[in-house]
Amino acid sequence: MNKPSSTITAASLAGLAMGVLWGAVKTWRPELMLDPMLVSGSTTFVSALVGYLKKERVLKAEDLG
Questions:
Q1: Which tens digit of pLDDT belongs to each residue from 14-35?
Q2: Average pLDDT across the chain, whole number
Q3: What is the largest distance, in Å, between two alpha-carbon atoms of the chain?
Q4: C-alpha torsion 13→17→20→25, nearest 10
């Protein structure tokens, strides 16, 4: 079975972490009116940045099987 590349995994986890972070902010400060554009834009930006900066780990032939 194929695994996703390490950059895709890192970007996905960064996006998930941003979602959890914004959820925690809203839980701790329910009176705070969060702009959906800020939440979605910052989540997309951070996940794209992490995916871009993450060094790709390339599997060698002996690692495949």
A1: 999 999 999 999 999 999 999 9
A2: 89
A3: 55
A4: -170
